[in-house]
Design goal:
The protein has 316 residues and is α/β, with parallel strands linked by helices. The chain folds into 2 domains: 116 residues, 3-Layer(aba) Sandwich (Rossmann fold); 175 residues, 3-Layer(aba) Sandwich (Rossmann fold). The strands form 2 sheets. Strands 8-7-6-9-10-11-12 form a 7-stranded parallel β-sheet, sandwiched between helices. It has a 5-stranded parallel β-sheet with strand order 2-1-3-4-5, covered by helices on one side. Strand 9, helix 5 and strand 10 form a beta-alpha-beta unit. Helix 2 crosses helix 3. The longest helix has 20 residues. It is elongated.
Length: 316
């Protein structure tokens, strides 16, 4: 029997690192998108997103699932960047948890940036030498919309800084981080929180979850942080809340679409801190994904159940 063949849409450098972990596997590099030219010998596909946020997804192949694959490993957590037909074939697993710490740290950096008014307090001249009033992080309330791997990483770090943590989640699963208060509704979360972090997947149910009605309930001066998906926010509603001051700042690492078109108000709004979906770009994210993949690879070869199988209803 020949080597197991894995077709990967990662770059050559990452595939070489994977090959060091699994020297008895052949890794073939493919471009992102529908895997055209996939060799019939490939049993596994490491799939990169087929689109950016707001982009078009490829239509279903004319004869349905065309590939003789046994397993597809996504290199992202959410499934909204992939076509529905990708899930009509073999088992599909997600990268759940691989970027949780990177996202948690990014959210905390946004909290500190808001409280300490960074980078606005930096000065570059004698005439600017005047103190600026700042606020504390300790004693404030952080609300989490969604409580999966990101919430599990973020909550204890936030608590260590003296933040009170509230959370809402869709499932009935208990929140097992001590001290995190589960609240009954999004409205209550927004009414009580100084900072709100969006950490929910993009699904039809969460599309424009953050709308005018919800933002009208927000605690005055709310700081909104989005590290999940841009489609969770009704942009016009958020801009109105920023204009009238109900929301004091929006720290947005994700938008819909990506990139935003030239001239979009987020680029120039004084209360928006915009970054180009960069929060997960840390060395540990890829290292964690490599470890997750090689663990699942051992399961696959042993015939054991794979970890983090995608749940279409949950969106990851």
């Amino acid at each position: 029997m020949g080597k197991l063949v894995v077709a990967s849409q990662f770059n050559e450098a990452f595939n070489a690192a994977l090959a060091e972990r699994a020297p008895d596997v052949d890794f073939l590099t493919l471009p992102p998108g529908p895997p055209a030219g996939l060799p019939h010998t490939a049993q596994v596909l490491l799939a990169a997103p087929f689109r950016k946020a707001g982009g078009a997804l490829p239509i279903s192949p004319p004869r349905g699932w065309p590939f003789d694959l046994k397993w597809v490993q996504l290199i992202s957590v959410g499934i909204d960047f992939y076509p529905d037909w990708l899930f009509d074939g073999p088992v599909v697993t997600s990268a759940r948890g691989s970027s949780a710490v990177a996202l948690a740290e990014f959210a905390l950096a946004a909290v500190f940036g808001h409280a300490k008014r960074l980078p606005g307090i930096w000065i570059n001249g004698y005439e600017m030498w005047a103190p600026t009033p700042l606020t504390l992080v300790e004693g404030r309330t952080l609300g989490l919309v969604g409580f999966g791997s990101i919430g599990e990483a973020l909550a204890p770090r936030a608590q260590a800084l003296g933040l009170k943590v509230l959370a809402v989640r869709r499932s009935d699963k208990a929140i097992d981080v001590p001290g995190v208060e589960r609240v009954a509704s999004l409205a209550e979360l927004f009414e009580r929180s100084d900072h709100v972090v969006l950490a929910a997947p993009a699904t039809p149910e969460t599309h424009h979850l953050i709308d005018r009605e919800l933002l009208a309930r927000a605690k005055p001066g709310l700081h909104l942080i989005n590290i999940a998906r841009g489609a969770l926010i009704d942009d016009e509603a958020l801009l109105e809340a920023l204009d009238d001051g109900r929301v004091s700042q929006a720290s947005l690492d994700v938008t819909h679409p990506e990139p935003l078109p030239p001239g979009h108000r987020y680029y120039s709004h004084p209360r928006v801190r915009l970054s180009p979906h960069t929060s997960v770009h840390t060395p540990d994210t890829r290292a964690n994904l490599a470890a997750k993949f090689t663990d699942n690879l051992a399961r696959f070869r042993d015939g054991r159940p794979l970890a983090d199988v995608v749940d279409l209803a949950r969106g990851y």
